[in-house]
Fold:
Amino acid sequence: MIELLGAAVAVRTADGGVRTLLHPTTAVLAERRVAVVGANGSGKSTLARLAGGLVLPTAGRVLVDGLDTATDGAAVRRRVGFCFTDPDAQLVMPTPAEDVALSLRRTVPPADRAAAAREVLERFGLGGHADVPVHALSGGQKQLLALAGVLATRPAVLVCDEPTTLLDLRWRRVVDELLEAAEPQVLLVTHDLAAARRADRVLVVDEGRVVADGEPEAAVDAYLRLMAGRPA
Structure:
């Protein structure tokens, strides 16, 4: 469960001013699938990073399963997995087998790690690609590998920041189905409104504020009305 308790994020600008990326936000996110939608630059990615402890609040508090991201950072990071838009940003090893093995370094003994990594790859349909260079994988395969590595650590919460934006329709469907079946609580930042409608709850972020929050159909419709009123 993610709790935002008056949490806000502000940064200093080059001219010495202050820019607010996310205004004080209070929300208890207990649902299994929570989607966050909003225009580019609206603050939705800031909210996601705040919720998972990648960004610390400059005001208020953020709790993940009761752990404060500001004071219990290491424990929060053990409970939260992240998947980002560009999988190249998180795939660091030469081959899929090595990359997943790296993810397992805290939970699997060294002698068992290679076999465990291959088991994970088999589960995600990547068993035949275990030893190929990561750079030779397609975009969809890379995103699948990134998710495999994150989910192999058994996080309690999975934060995904637009994980299907760079994918074609086939791979978008594969990743969507994987996220819907995943065991952890999922916080999904997305421009895919069909995926948002399948969530249990949707937050709409605009200009650093949560302007709608609730049942998916109503929240997505509110977002569409908001965007319809904006100049192209």
Remarks:
- The chain has one domain: 2-228.
